[in-house]
Amino acid sequence: MNQPREVVIVGAGPAGVGMAALLRRSAIQDILVVDSHEVGASFMRWPEETRFITPSFFSNPFGQPDLNSVTPDSSLALFCGEEHPGGKTYASYLKVVLDEYQIPVMAPARIAKVALLSSGNFILTTEAGEKLETRSLIWATGEFQFPDWQIFPGADICCHYGDVTSWKDFRKGEYIVIGGYESAVDAAVNLLENGSSVKMLTRSAPWSTNHISDPSLSLSPYTRERLNRVMNHRLFEIYEDADVCEVIRMPGPGSSYKVHTTNGRAWATDEVPVLATGFQCGGGARQLAAFFEWNDDGYPVLTDEDCSTLFPGLYLVGPHVRHAGNIYCFIYKFRQRFPVVAESITRHLGLSSEGVRDWWVLPSEPDCCADEDCAC
User: Fold this and answer.
1) pLDDT of residue 98
2) What CA–CA distances, in Å, run from 165 to 23, 160, 174?
3) Which pLDDT belongs to residue 209?
């Protein structure tokens, strides 16, 4: 085993790559990014038709970095010339960032075990038996590769959104889409475009005009616009207050399914239901469940610097960070935590943190945004 590294980052998605780039500009130089698959693995596994809901625009010179960039000196829009690119394009962008900052990547390398040494360092063991020791560990494994199959009985016989390669692979038929947020609308629109009929079962109406303005809790403008275009489609039906409680496979020849809701209603279909209800609460942090405290909502408890409250030197970055009701599940949100984590790590390592925050300075939000009823 080599000498302990200063920082090991597990996860080569936007959170891990963005953190690595910022640390490279600090006093920390001994950085290794590890991923169980490849750089941008979750994005490589997006359905072929899926696009970014946050728009990319080369606004960097005017003080507002591209919403989907992981460094303030790069722009996804400038990289690919698209406003709403697909997953494979984004994975390519992440690879370019890593190359630009000369950050070493170890992939594929699945971490099988994490342990704490008496020195306070972490020891990571891969499935291949390789061992990595580090003084600081950043866990950045995201959520896309952790579908929630326990949301109700029979969820496991559905087709989860995260397992779709392309909507063109679905034969023309009558589909039930379970869910009402971004992935459910995306599934419904793509199935309709392929000539299928769709019944969307949702507990709420996140597209309503009086819904919460935070795009982490309601539909993004991009998705709302797509939904509006099909709202009156003759093959599309939406059932609100449809809280699915069970999916069963019917006996007999062929494959047919029945979807039940808590209000006693049921729908039948010959096509496998599409499960678009999201991913495990806590996401990839569940891989290190014993290293974090967990709150009643199922999210890891962190210090003000996104560090584990149990183990100094262990940090969480990405979509499952929560602070005072703030949800950091978009890239433009969780990247704001990068300098906080970087400063904390440099102090943990006894290095200077001067200038770390200055590199990721983002415009502050208007004073009115402190008001819960802010309309902007």
Assistant:
1) 97
2) 34, 11, 19
3) 63
Question: Which tokens sit at 251?
Answer: 């006996």
Contact call for residues 46 and 86 (beta carbons, < 8 A): yes
Q: Is the peptide bond before 108 cis (omega within 30 degrees of 0)?
A: yes
Q: Cα(125)–Cα(147) distance, rounded to whole angstroms?
A: 25
Residue 62's CB is within 10 A of a number of other CB atoms, namely 9
pLDDT confidence of residue 366: 42
CA distance 375 to 212: 10
- What is the residue whose two structure tokens read 């790069």? 74
239: enclosing H helix or E strand: strand 236-239
CB-side exposure of 239: number of CA atoms within 13 Å? 18
DSSP element (H, E) containing 123:
strand 122-126
Which pLDDT score is estimated for 376?
36
Q: How many helices (H) and strands (E) in the chain? A: 9, 19
The H or E element that residue 228 is part of is helix 221-230
DSSP SS3 for 82: coil
Residue with tokens 């169980």: 36
DSSP class of residue 55 equals P
State residue 37 phi and psi, 5-degree precision: -120, -80
Name the 3-class secondary structure at 92. helix
Q: How much is the pLDDT for 208? A: 75
Task: Give 289's DSSP letter.
Answer: G
Distance linking the first and last C-alpha atoms of the chain:
53
Structure tokens at 72: 């303030």
Segments in the chain below pLDDT 70: 1-2, 209-212, 254, 361-376
In angstroms, the CA 13 to CA 21 distance is: 12
Q: What are the pLDDT digits (tens) for 135-161?
A: 999 999 988 888 999 999 999 999 999
Cα separation values, 188 from 198, 228, 339, Å: 6, 12, 38
Q: Whole-angstrom Cα distance, residue 26 to residue 188?
A: 45
Distances (CA, A) of 368 to 191, 364, 376: 40, 11, 8
